[in-house]
Amino acid sequence: IDSTPRLRGRVSGFDLDMRLATAHAAMGRFDAAIALCERYLDDPEVPPSMYYGRLSELYEVAQRYDEAIACHRKAYEVSDDSTTAVLDLAMALLRHNQDLDYARKLIAEAEAMPMSDVLELFLPSLKGLAALNANSHAEALDLLTRTEESLRPIAPGSAPIRNILDNIQGFKAIAFAKTGRLDEARKCFAAARPRIDALKNIALLQR
C-alpha cells in the first residue's frame, strides 16, 4: 500500500488498483477494496474476463472462497474463448476440492484451445491436483514434479511463476503426507509456508 504512489504511471492503473484492492481485502478492509475495483467494471480497456479473474483474488484473500469461485465462473462465462479463464476456473475448483468431474472437463476443453508455452508447462499441475483430489497420490506427485521441473528455469524473472511453484510445493506436501513420506512432506511444506502465510492461503493450510 505504501509503495502505490511511487508506482503510479509505471504500472497500469488497473493492475495497480487491483493489487492495492487485494491488499485492502487481506487487511479486512473489504468495502474499500471493492470500491477500488468497481470503476473498472465498465472500462472498455479492461476485458470483463480479466476484471472478474482479478476480482476473485479479493475474495480469495478474504477467505470468501465460494465467491472467489463465482468470480472465476463469471470470467469463464464472459470470456471470448480465453484459455486462461478456462484453466483459472478449473484451478479454483481443484484448489478447493470441488466438482472434480467438471474441473477435468474444463482441463480437456482447454487442451483443445490455443495455449501459450507457459500454460502448456503449467497444465500438468492441474492434472496433478485433480489426481490428488481423486486420491491418486503417486500420479499426483509425478505430474506436480514434472510441472515444477519445467517451470523452475523461468521462475527467477516471474513472481506469478514463483507463486505457482510454492503452491505446487504445498500440494506435493499433501501427497507425500498421504503416502506416509512425512520427511518429504515437511520439506515441501517448509518451502511453501512463507508464501502460504503471506497470501493467507488458509484453504491450502486446512488441507
Write up this protein.
There is one protein chain. With 207 residues, the protein is mainly α. Helices cover 74% and strands 0% of the residues. It has helices at residues 4-7, 13-26, 30-38, 48-61, 65-78, 83-95, 100-111, 117-133, 137-151, 159-178, 182-198, 202-206. Helix 2 (13-26) packs parallel to helix 4, helix 4 runs antiparallel to helix 5 (65-78) and helix 6 (83-95) runs antiparallel to helix 7. The protein is globular, with a radius of gyration of 17 Å. The chain starts with a helix and ends with a helix. The model has no long low-confidence stretch (mean pLDDT 90).
Question: Topology of this structure?
Answer:
Layout: H1 4-7, H2 13-26, H3 30-38, H4 48-61, H5 65-78, H6 83-95, H7 100-111, H8 117-133, H9 137-151, H10 159-178, H11 182-198, H12 202-206
Helix pairs in contact: 2-3, 2-4, 4-5, 5-6, 6-7, 6-8, 7-8, 8-9, 9-10, 10-11
Cα-atom Rg, whole angstroms?
A: 17 Å
Which percent range fits the helix content? over 70%
Main β-sheet description: none
Low-confidence stretches: none
Residue fraction in strands = under 5%
How far from one another are the termini? 30 Å
Looking at the chains present, what oligomeric state does this protein adopt?
A: single chain
